[in-house]
Amino acid sequence: MFTRLIQSTSFSTMVNRKIRTALLQLNVGSDRETNLKHAANKIAEAKKGGAELVALSECFNSPYGTKFFDQYAEIIPGGPSCAMLSNAAKEHGIYIVGGTIPERCDSKLYNTCTVWNSNGEMIAKYRKMHLFDIDIPGGITFKESEALSAGNNLVTFKIGDVKFGLGICYDLRFEELAKLYRQENCDMLIYPAAFNMTTGPLHWELLQRSRAVDNQVFVCTISPARGEKGYIAWGHTQVTNPWGKVLATANSKEEIVYCDLNLSECDEVRQQIPVFPQRRTDIYNTILTK
Ligand SMILES: NC(=O)CC(=O)C(=O)O
């Protein structure tokens, strides 16, 4: 178990643009109650480490796989996982990005991220928009759409003057989503995730650096720790700054990654390399509508 502390560079005088974040890369097993207790203990540890915002991984309360979604699904915010997240946020007076849990709503299932404020109130709910359907012979075949429905909404939330956009795992591959969040003026994109042993080494770091550079935002991803059976997660929870520099990356084992982030860095990069206002939408839009 490692604990890591990193600092982003060039802090400015705008104090309300700084935030201490803890990303929890946790071991996850098949027993929900054990997973929830473990997450609650680690949230408490992160609070002791000074975190104001704590984030968990995709499926932090259950194994990740199409055959598990129905079995572990909960009504949001009525189930035990939301109760734990709400209580922990309130008890410790922090914000929590509650990774994802399988959500049951009407007759459908979703892969859903909830966000909780320091009073224990749910302030955001995001449903995975792009379902993970891939088939790489000799690598990995996975078809989330066999079990899940896709969400249809972008979701943002604010802590003080810092604006966050939410995505989940496979959503990271879709530049359009990240670009829309940039258009909404987000400073940081947070993706609870669980890449795997085929796509992790190939694309995990590259995609995060790409989203960060293209949109001049911080990108945080939170993976479960690598297990030994079933869907094997890549791990490597990561923080990338708006210059595209990887500020921290976990290994494959359980770890808390702390980061003191100064979101004013987004303003600096955007001022120094003003690509967003320089986009030629007059041309792109003409081509797109043809
Ligand atoms: N698990 C996912 O949703 C995505 C993933 O592993 C990948 O895109 O690769």
From TrEMBL:
One example of a Gene Ontology biological process annotation: glutamine metabolic process
Enzyme Commission code: 3.5.1.3
PROSITE patterns xrefs: CN_HYDROLASE
Gene3D superfamilies linked: Carbon-nitrogen hydrolase
GO MF term set: omega-amidase activity
InterPro entries xref list: C-N_Hydrolase, C-N_Hydrolase_sf, Nit1/2_C-N_Hydrolase
Catalytic activity: 2-oxosuccinamate + H2O = oxaloacetate + NH4(+); 2-oxoglutaramate + H2O = 2-oxoglutarate + NH4(+)
Keywords carried by this UniProt record: Hydrolase
One GO term describing the cellular component: mitochondrion
Chain ranges of the CN hydrolase domain: 19-263
Pfam family of the protein (one): CN_hydrolase
Family (UniProt): Belongs to the carbon-nitrogen hydrolase superfamily. NIT1/NIT2 family.
This protein's name: omega-amidase
Species assigned in the record: Photinus pyralis
